[in-house]
Amino acid sequence: MHALDSVVMLLLLAVVTVIFCRHLRIPTMLGYLIVGFITGPGVLHLIRQTEATELLGEIGIVFLMFSIGLEFSLPKLKSMKNLVFGFGFLQVVITILTIMLICNFIGKISMLASFAIASALTVSSTAIVSKMMVGRGELGTQHGQMTMGVLLMQDIAVVPIMILMHTLAGDSSSLWTDLAFAIVKMLVVLFVLLYLGEKLMRPWFYLVAKQEHAELFMLNVLLVTLGVAYLTELSGLSLALGAFVAGILIAETQYRFQVEDDIRPFRDALLGFFFITVGMKLNITILKDNYIIILILLSLLIILNFIVVFAIAKFSKYKNKDSFISGVYLAQGGEFGFVLLALALKDHLITSEIAQIGTAAILLSMIITPFLINITPWTAEKLFKSTWDERSINLHQMLIENMGKDDHVLLVGFGKTGQTIARILQKEGINYYALDLDAERVHAARLAGEPVSFGDAKRKDILMAAGLKRAHMVILTGHSNHDNERILSLIMSERPTLPVIVRTNNDEYSQLLGALGATSVISDNRETGLVLASEAMLHYGMPFYRVYNIIRDVRQDKYAMLRDLYLGSDEMAQAQASKNIYRDSLQLSSGAHAIGKDVHTLPFVKLNVELLGVRRKTQYIKKPTEEFVLEENDVLLVIGVPSSIKALERIVLTGE
Known about the structure:
Elements lengths: L4 H20 L3 H12 L11 H21 L2 H6 L1 H26 L4 H12 L3 H10 L6 H28 L5 H35 L4 H21 L4 H13 L4 H24 L4 H6 L1 H25 L4 H10 L5 H12 L5 H32 L1 H18 L6 E4 L3 H12 L4 E5 L2 H9 L4 E3 L5 H6 L7 E4 L4 H14 L5 E5 L3 H9 L3 E4 H16 L4 H13 L8 E2 L2 H8 L5 E6 L16 H4 L2 E7 L2 E4 L12 E6 L1 H13 L2
Helix pairs in contact: 1-2, 2-12, 3-7, 3-11, 3-12, 5-6, 5-8, 5-14, 6-8, 6-16, 8-9, 8-15, 8-16, 9-10, 9-11, 10-11, 14-15, 14-17, 15-17, 16-17, 22-23, 24-25
């Protein structure tokens, strides 16, 4: 078979899986794992595990860790040293020792085999956990930093663990010398990369960016990502750790956001390959023959990892909620567990049967992890009274801060748009109070003296504590139309006459939000054009009040005059799935079916398409009569939803 057969099959499966998962609204990560299991060597044998497929998966982890590194900076990494080398170190050591004791007590397994099994079950899945935390915006939270600290320590610990396993298997007398040398080499490599890399990265990226060549910039990003990862692998560290370091170095430059946008397609596609290759490792025969042992090991893996992390976090005086969430997030096995089991099998520390059972338990834990992570924050809210106490404290604090406020503007969302509004209001001496769900942003803003609190405006008690009853108006600045709909409904139930200005990025919601009671609905898609049009009219010499009235009328009419705009090719795919109305022109080329026919015999009404007029050469016929006969090269000007216009075009041209 051709060397590319497995890669092509992986690509096909990745595309089909994403479509299927998006249709059923389930995590694509879970779909990849299941598809890999079903189509791999363990069940249907559709794809083979080759070096090419493994390399694609490994590069996926590289780009994921690189993206995570972009979220950090050297100061932030330094501030996490206690989490990495304190919390993380304790987790690795305590978990390994505990599993070794259990193995010796229950199965009377040798110390070497126990160490190999314990090491494999200790490391969690950096790929799954970090990807989900990035998607949920949790890297900046306390539990997010705790979790990342442990994951980083586990990635670092894999190297000395592998050395220990290999050396113990050979009964080497130079164990401590080899281990000390490896640790020193690891520290030297990291120091050189972080110290010299910080000094070299900024001028290097400046040199590349100065060329103003997008292809060159992208090639440079790939070079830095894979190059630093390759250097760390040569020194005995993991590719993933090197990619993380590369991300941190670029995070210190002004090119961070451009790099992040460029790298995202590679990261998501290749990470999908990785999860498929992980699913391929599971063998259905092993599952059937040893399912009881696998389930026991799976339970031990999840429960023990959770207990160890939770206990260390509580000992370190972290909050119950953060300790619980971190414990669940780190409760599964990880991709390095497969590597350690394979090495232990190669060095004859464990049998093939134990390796397969361990692989199955780790993989099953990875498969159920997305479900556990999705329900964990909700479970933590229900379990711990402290979170309710914190809510009460926040509400009490908000009530105290707002008791003296009257006739203020209530801002829901304190992102770029919310802060822009706040600064203008502040300059004009207008009081405001803001709510936001980004804890890090709220903390920074409050330190600077901004009147902003952490709070979910979808909750009635939060809105009331923020002074809804005394507010002059409310401005909803968020992107989520669904959230804006819920918040607007709550506001209208309490104060139906209160002016509410809502931002939307979806024209379909303009009418709905207006019907719910919004005074003004400001569309991201339309406002840029309105601002440019107003500037053009002012420069043309029109009076300001006239320009203001024109723009106000367009907004009050919910952008009705702007709904039937012409579509470009870049907008067509998105428009086909929407119910927005657009304008289009259909030309009757030579041989068109409609030539010679009365214009009103065409199914405009049936297709719910409106005929605005017909252009014939230089003449424009608005609303042609029923007797109007179409000629070659006539152009029909119509408005309707894209799918209906396409159907009309097919009939006009072919009669089908």
